[in-house]
Automatic annotation (TrEMBL):
Transmembrane segments: none annotated. Belongs to the class-III pyridine nucleotide-disulfide oxidoreductase family. InterPro entries: FAD-bd_OxRdtase, FAD/NAD-bd_sf, FAD/NAD-binding_dom, FAD/NAD-linked_Rdtase_dimer_sf, Pyr_nucl-diS_OxRdtase_dimer. Its cofactor is FAD. The keyword NADP does not apply. It comes from the Bacteria. Keywords: FAD, Flavoprotein, Oxidoreductase, Redox-active center. PANTHER family: NAD(P)H SULFUR OXIDOREDUCTASE (COA-DEPENDENT) (PTHR43429:SF1), PYRIDINE NUCLEOTIDE-DISULFIDE OXIDOREDUCTASE DOMAIN-CONTAINING (PTHR43429). Residues 1-293 form the FAD/NAD(P)-binding domain. Gene3D superfamilies: FAD/NAD(P)-binding domain. It comes from Scopulibacillus cellulosilyticus. This is FAD-dependent oxidoreductase.
Length: 443
């Protein structure tokens, strides 16, 4: 059986490892456009910020390991440009030689991930303007910082934007964040985003909202970012305006695409075409709370989906149970955690909801070293079924995010949450966990 996997990172290599571990006769070929396999994209801002000393620390397994230890035909610099699902072939070009290649498959996994969105703004090819996805991107940004960089502009206020703002802050570089929306971190409700804005202000980070980037000024290197309102001086620019599934090469096929052009898959990671699977940031995920497919590209989802895709490709049928939209972000001195629906999500779905927001503490209120912890819970009126939770604080947000993620996965109500047997000792928690404190505030 010939297995071909397009993509050599989280989803693709999780699938490849499942295949070779359970099918000794399998012939597995992986096609990666870049030069590095199986690396942590999520660790790149911390490499740039100086927390991680070497980019090699972010590589889980090298290409040589996949080839020599596991017998995978792991190819680098192979860009796939066409999939023929009738003939069951994959075509593309070898980047170094610009020569074409073609390979046949019995089963195919599309695990091409997502690419940064970079609009065609005037001046986008000036030096010192970067996106961040690959290890090469991270290393290029570090090279850019070797010059006399005093002012960084970040376009976008999502995960990467916040993490890169922290990286530059740690390097004592002045930061301006520009977002076309009315607030940063739109995965949180506005009343929680205010806490993020306050942290940015306290740390001297300038936040520019409701402005559209128009282009860049500079000679050979960028000197400023232009918006519809004004211009902001910059020695380095990070474009973190979101990501999009890398699926454009599939548009000439009958493979069905959905939200944001992510590949539609069933619970077994199968597309609508026989013998073709998809997983990771290029594919959609079933959202257990929304009860619909959504596009939430995260490393946790990619690894799970890839593992299950590999199992299903070799006939070990196991469904993907879905996601609840859980994420955690570190922004300088704050942990920002959330899972499930925001109020805005619930309103779009036409749900009748109620919410509670409280200010508690991460540990017992009388214990030395306590920190404020803001908790927001969202529930369905009547049934009191939990729909979402958001947590922001210096410590303790991550712990509570995981509690809520588990509760959402299990479909618990507010009463169920009150009844949870959550660990307690004064150095770690209050006798009533902040999650339970919030649950008890509902009428």
């Amino acid at each position: 059986m010939k297995y071909v996997i397009i993509g050599g990172d989280a989803a693709g290599m999780s699938a490849a490892m499942q295949i070779i571990r359970h099918d000794q006769q399998a012939k597995v070929t992986t096609l990666e456009k870049g030069d590095v396999y199986s690396y942590s994209q999520c660790g790149l801002p911390y490499f740039i910020g100086g927390d991680i000393e070497s980019s090699s620390k972010l590589i889980a397994r090298s290409v040589d390991t996949f080839r020599n230890k596991y017998g995978i035909d792991a190819r680098c610099g192979h860009e796939v440009t066409e999939v023929d699902t009738d003939q069951q072939t994959v075509k593309g070009r070898i980047l170094k030689s610009d020569k074409p290649f073609e390979i046949s498959y019995d089963k195919l996994l599309i695990a091409t991930g997502a690419d940064p969105v970079f609009p065609d703004w005037p001046g986008k090819k000036l030096d010192c303007i970067f996106t961040l996805k690959t290890i090469a991107d991270g290393e290029n940004i570090l090279k850019g910082l070797s010059k006399d960089v005093q002012r960084a502009v970040i376009i976008g206020g999502g995960y990467i934007g916040l993490e890169m703002a922290e990286a530059f802050y740690n390097r004592k570089i002045g930061v301006t964040m520009i977002d076309r929306g009315s607030r940063l971190a739109k995965v949180f409700d506005p009343d929680m985003s205010e806490l993020i804005h306050e942290e940015a202000k306290n740390k001297g980070i300038k936040v520019v909202l409701n402005e559209e980037v128009q282009g860049f000024q500079g000679d050979s290197a960028v000197k400023a970012v232009e918006t519809n309102i004004g211009a902001y001086e910059a020695d380095i620019v990070i474009v973190a305006a979101g990501i999009a599934p890398n699926t454009s090469f599939l548009k000439q096929t009958d493979i069905e695409l959905g939200v944001k052009n992510g590949v539609k898959v069933n619970k077994y990671m199968e597309t609508n075409i026989k013998n073709v699977y998809a997983a990771g940031d290029c594919a959609l995920q079933y959202h257990r709370v929304k009860e619909a497919y959504d596009y939430i590209p995260l490393g946790t989802n990619a690894n799970k989906m890839g593992r299950l895709a590999g199992m299903n490709m070799i006939g070990q049928r196991r469904p993907f149970a879905g996601i609840t939209g859980t994420s955690i972000i570190k922004f300088i001195d704050l942990e920002l955690g959330r899972s499930g629906l925001t109020e805005q999500d619930a309103e779009k779905l036409g749900l009748d909801i109620e919410s509670v927001k409280i200010k508690s503490t991460d540990i017992a209120g009388y214990f030395p070293g306590k920190h404020p912890l803001w908790v927001k819970l969202i529930a369905e009126k009547g049934s009191k079924k939990l729909l979402g939770g958001q947590f922001i604080g210096k410590q303790g947000a991550a712990k509570r995010t995981d509690v809520i993620a588990t509760a959402l996965y299990s479909g618990l109500t507010l009463t169920d949450i009150e009844d949870l047997d959550i660990s307690y000792a004064p150095p770690f928690n209050s006798v009533w966990d902040p999650v339970q404190q919030a649950a008890r505030r509902f009428k």
